[in-house]
Automatic annotation (TrEMBL):
It comes from the Bacteria. GO terms for biological process: fatty acid beta-oxidation using acyl-CoA dehydrogenase. GO terms for cellular component: cytoplasm. The lineage of its organism: Bacteria, Pseudomonadati, Pseudomonadota, Gammaproteobacteria, Moraxellales. Residues 251-385 form the Acyl-CoA dehydrogenase C-terminal domain. This is Acyl-CoA dehydrogenase C-terminal domain-containing protein. The keyword Oxidoreductase applies. SUPFAM superfamilies: Acyl-CoA dehydrogenase C-terminal domain-like (SSF47203), Acyl-CoA dehydrogenase NM domain-like (SSF56645). It comes from Acinetobacter gerneri DSM 14967 = CIP 107464 = MTCC 9824. Keywords: Oxidoreductase.
Length: 419
């Protein structure tokens, strides 16, 4: 018996899938509108406030919420297909929404044991959640400097500073990773973006994904309601695979946009080389080969992203099943496949976004065209989780059946000061 059949009584509270073609018809015009400003935003480094607000108003940011609670109830394969299309329009926006959809996913899982109707209502109303987990500077690996404390009146407060706070500058809430000093545990704190003591700086200086709002968040004695403090140990189990799938969708969208843009450049090109192979570049077989290779690489990237998304959906459904063994297997498969896909998709998209320049000439390097943005954005996305470590853990599993790391951190080495 399939998981779906065993979950019949819970169907209306789950996100099992929607009419994808209907959703594409609804959102593609919005994606097309967003795409019109992407090049200008890239040239001027303009943050996409209006575009993200448009997605909020359209209900896009609530599509994973079950229909029963006002969302579209899309499955994870459907979500990542739509995200790939959005990333084709503007890859920065998909990354800016990564923390939001992860928090939504966590609340979908938490709904098994405790009603999350209040959060679902917020999502449907267009409220979004940003991300604030990573700390930079001298904080040592395995530690967290952001602290949650309680005063003598019983009120909770959080203080600290985060970087790589992707999407928070556009959000209504912030998903903050902190240490609970009272209960001595790691927690997630849902901070209201508009509380006193919250400061968000637009100081992200990466050469790619420039408009994701991935800068600094400063929290100074920010009040937090107790119901918005979540034990990190309860975080949804397939979160690392889910976060990586977002990068896969972003990379797949970059690939689609690169192939489309370079194809149009070739189609419109009038100049030819004396030692070329045709009277028009668009008929030159070697140029067609370059475009064809990139198109195939783009297709493979999307196919792998969808394969991972299918495993994620199985992990999601297994959480509501009664078998811990099956849930563990589903989570392992999702983590393994997301790691395998990361290794391959990153290389595919980095390759095509560079090799496509062989279809044109020096004019393709014009800063006005910003054709290098595809490689820069892909390189930036591919750098978040080092591929070499993914390759290592995959190999360790293949040879030694070693457990895959579901959660990891980055921080200063304890030996850094003495080195």
């Amino acid at each position: 018996m399939s998981i779906l059949n065993r979950l019949t009584s819970q169907h209306e509270s789950l996100s099992l899938g929607a009419d994808l073609e209907k959703l594409k018809a609804k959102f593609q015009p919005i994606f097309d509108e967003i795409a019109k400003k992407t090049l200008f935003h890239e040239q001027q480094r303009i943050l996409p406030y209006d575009e993200i607000q448009l997605l909020k108003d359209s209900g896009f940011t609530a599509i994973r919420v079950p229909e029963k609670f006002g969302g579209a109830g899309v499955s994870l394969p459907q979500l990542f297909e739509l995200l790939t299309l959005l990333a084709e329009a503007d890859s920065n926006i998909v990354q800016a929404l990564r923390g939001h959809f992860a928090f939504v996913e966590d609340r979908l899982n938490a709904h098994k044991d405790l009603s999350q109707k209040h959060w679902f209502e917020r999502f449907v109303a267009g409220e979004t959640v940003g991300n604030a987990w990573t700390e930079i500077g001298e904080v040592q690996i395995g530690e967290v400097a952001t602290r949650l404390s309680r005063n003598i009146e019983g009120r909770w407060f959080v203080s600290g500073e985060k970087y790589y706070s992707t999407g928070s500058i556009f959000a209504d809430w912030i998903d903050v990773y902190a240490y609970d000093e009272i209960n001595q545990r790691a927690v997630i704190v849902a901070v209201n973006r508009h509380e006193n003591g919250v400061a968000i700086l637009d100081d992200w200086d990466g050469f790619g994904q420039k408009t994701t709002g991935s800068g600094t968040i400063q929290l100074k004695n920010v009040h937090v309601f107790e119901q918005n403090i979540i034990d990190f140990a309860t975080r949804f189990k397939y979160q690392t695979a889910f976060y990586q799938a977002f990068h896969l969708a972003t990379l797949s969208g970059i690939a689609r946009a690169a192939v489309r843009t370079f194809s149009e450049e070739v189609r419109q090109r009038k100049r030819i080389f004396s030692h070329g192979n045709a009277d028009l570049v668009r008929h030159d077989p070697q140029v067609l080969q370059v475009i064809g290779q990139a198109s195939a690489q783009s297709y493979a990237s999307e196919a792998l992203t969808q394969k991972v998304a299918t495993s994620l959906q199985d992990a999601y459904l297994s959480h509501f099943d009664q078998s811990e063994v099956l849930e563990q297997k589903a989570n392992h498969r999702a983590e393994l496949e997301s790691a395998q896909a990361q290794v391959v998709v990153s290389q595919l998209v980095l390759s095509l976004s560079s090799e496509l320049f062989n279809a044109l000439s020096a004019s393709a390097t014009s800063t006005a065209k910003q054709l290098d943005r595809f490689w820069r954005n892909a390189r930036t996305v591919s750098s978040h989780n080092p591929i070499i470590y993914k390759q290592k853990v995959i190999g360790d599993w293949e040879i030694n059946q070693a457990e895959l790391p579901y959660v990891w951190q980055i921080g200063q080495s304890p030996k850094a000061k003495s080195a």
